[in-house]
Structure formats: C-alpha cells, structure tokens
Amino acid sequence: MMMSAIYDKIGLGYARKRKPDYRIARAIHDALGDAQSILNVGAGTGSYEPDNRTVTALEPSAEMIGQRPPDAAKAYQGSAEAIPFADNQFDAAMAVLTVHHWSDFKAGLREMRRVAKGPLVILTFDPESHYFWLADYIPEIIALDQPIMPKLEAFERILGPCKVEVVPVPHDCTDGFLGAYWQRPHAYLDPEVRAAISTFAKLDNITNALTKLEQDLASGAWEERYGHLMELKNLDVGYRLVVAQPISKKE
Hints:
Number of helices: 12
Structural class: alpha/beta
Largest sheet: 7 strands, mixed
Number of strands: 9
C-alpha cells in the first residue's frame, strides 16, 4: 500500500523522466539468460522489459499502470508479497529498483522464487556502498535508505547463493533515478526531475539544501569539490544487480 501511494503521487510525470538506459537494460537482459517468459515485479511503466520475450507485469499503482505504453506487456495490479500467479509459471522474474518499497522483503523474494523456475534478476541499491556527493547536501537520503534498503547478504539468506554485479551509472544516463545525475548537478534543482524520484517524495522541506547546491554551482564551489567527476564516463554510486539461480533439489 505504501508503494502504491508513493507512486500514485510521483507517477504523474514519471514516464517523461524515467526512460530506460540501454546500457543498464543490456545488463538486465543478459542476466535473464534464455528465459522466454518473464514476470516483472513492481513493473512501473515498463522500463527494462525486454521486447523480444513474453513479459507479464505486476504493479501496485494504478497511476503507473496507466502510463505504460500501448504496446507494453499486459499489466496486472498487485504486490510482490502476494503474486497472483501459479508456481513455476514463468521462466524468470525481474524486479527493478523496487524491493525497498515492499512491505515484506522476505515474502516478496519468496513469491518471486515460487512463480519463477529460472533466474531472479533484481536491480537494487547497496546501502553499504559509498554515497555520492548529493548526500553531502541532503544527508537525509542516507537516513531514509538505511532502514529500507536491504543489505546484499539479505538476498542470499533468503534465496541462497547470488551473483552480484556492479552496475555503473553512465554520465548521460537516460533513466532519472536518484543517482542518475551525478555528473549533471543542475538537474536536482529541477522540480520535474525530483518529482520522478521516490526519495524526494519522502523528504521533508529541503529548500535550504537545494539553495546551497544552487549557490555552490553558481560560485564554483561545487566544481572545486567535485569537478573531477566531469572527466568520468561512468561512476559506481551503489547500484547492484543481484542474480539468483534456482537451487537444484537433490533426488
């Protein structure tokens, strides 16, 4: 219910700013292997759903479902914690930047494992990774993340051995999630950009922080501290791809 409420609020302009980045898409699609039927849990507007396979989408927010393109996969309204499909119905299941919104992380993962007979591919954020410069201006984002972002070892406790891959964020990332604009600091001053990022929907008044960022950009203070980032093509800002294969049962 919390996830649905948040995205019913921020989803109004979500599709304009949250366009899938092809480099991140490639990592997700490669991890899905040769799976042909895929369940996308917390599917939103359909970002990162492969268009050459049979995809079924599950999304709690009616607003987000309404923004899915006409040619997107069929979407059902529902939550990760109670997936309305049969055991082993899909070859694989995916979940992109959604697990931190679930009301019951363990139940959601177990449901994904129940309905998928192949790999589970989950794009998430590692709360133990180094936060990028935005946290220097808005340290509240760390306080928000720590209680809700599952640590990587939590995936293995529930799913068994997992492969974890670093997903570096390109400097020109087209998907406007929180870390996407690490090389474009002016973007965080744009209300439309912030409106498509769930973190900002949870923050209280951050006017002072944004004013400080704006002043530092104008004065050159931001460039003095973080200008070295402008030379990079990609940056690790904590995003990880967790891939869990089914545990084979002994005869």
